[in-house]
Design goal:
- The chain is α+β, with helices and mostly antiparallel strands and 152 residues long.
- It has one domain: GAF domain (Beta-Lactamase), CATH 3.30.450.40.
- The chain is 35% helix and 27% strand.
- A six-stranded antiparallel sheet has the order 3-2-1-6-5-4, with helices on both faces.
- Strand 5 and strand 6 form a beta hairpin.
- Helix 1 packs antiparallel against helix 2 and helix 1 runs parallel beside helix 4.
- The two termini are 27 Å apart.
């Protein structure tokens, strides 16, 4: 893993362990990722409402989105919630089930936040760069989501 990512992980651990509210912690993580990694052009958390099988937009950094509620199974975020696995989409135009947030978005990664085998949230990151997300990004974001699970 890149050295810069190790520094980010140290910062995320400090945020998770801080006395801030859960919402403030999630917002701080979004800001940290957005500010630290140039190809992260939209960073946000969706909170899972399993009873209604939908995701509700939580803290985010980037352009506003009309997708404040997403049904499980719909779009990349909904598919990740339904299948409970990380989705890396190198080219969003190749996806038939893609929910466009901005015409600038070229690639996306969505990582579920799991607690006791259930989805509680997910981290969604869009990039204006085609094929932006590599194995280091996936490794970084999956570790962050393991720690974020402690907040639920």
């Amino acid at each position: 893993m890149k050295d810069e990512f190790k520094k980010i992980l140290d910062s995320v651990r400090a945020i998770v362990d801080s006395d801030k509210s859960r919402s403030e912690k999630l917002a701080s993580i979004c800001r940290l990722l957005y500010d630290s990694i140039p190809h992260y052009d939209w960073v946000g958390f969706y909170l899972a409402d399993s009873e209604h099988q939908q995701l509700i937009l939580g803290p985010f950094i980037g352009e506003p989105t009309e997708h404040v509620k997403i049904s499980f199974g719909s779009g990349i975020c909904g598919q990740a919630a339904e299948k409970l696995c990380t989705f890396v989409v190198p080219d969003v135009t190749a996806e038939s089930n893609y929910l466009a947030c901005s015409p600038k978005v070229k690639s996306e990664i969505v990582v579920p936040v799991m607690k006791e085998g259930k989805i509680v949230a997910e981290l969604d990151i869009d990039s204006y760069t085609l094929d932006a997300f590599k194995s280091d990004d996936k490794e970084l974001l999956e570790q962050i989501c393991r720690w974020v699970a402690e907040l639920f």
